[in-house]
């Protein structure tokens, strides 16, 4: 005897979210710019006056 079966096949595609990567990159680049800006300020104005 032949049995009929209903079979559902799912195809899942893994999507990469490039916008999240871009936002994270901009965020960390901004942190680096702020860090080096503060470092530049300390070297020029705080330590520069001591020497």
Quick gist of this model?
This protein has 51 residues and is mainly alpha-helical.
Structure overview:
- This protein has one helix at 18-50.
- With 51 residues, the chain is mainly alpha-helical.
- The protein has a domain at 19-51.
Radius of gyration, whole Å: 28 Å
Global structural class: mainly alpha
Taking the alpha carbons of the first and last residues, their distance comes to 97 Å
Largest sheet: none
The overall average pLDDT, rounded, is 85
Q: From N to C, what is the helix and strand string?
A: H
- Shape annotation: rod-shaped
SS summary, helix count? 1
Number of strands: 0
Helical proportion?
A: 55-70%
Low-confidence parts, pLDDT < 50 over ≥5 residues? none
Q: What does the secondary structure layout of this molecule look like, with pairings?
A:
Elements: H1 18-50
Question: What are the key terms here?
Answer:
0% strand; mainly alpha; 1 helix; 51 residues
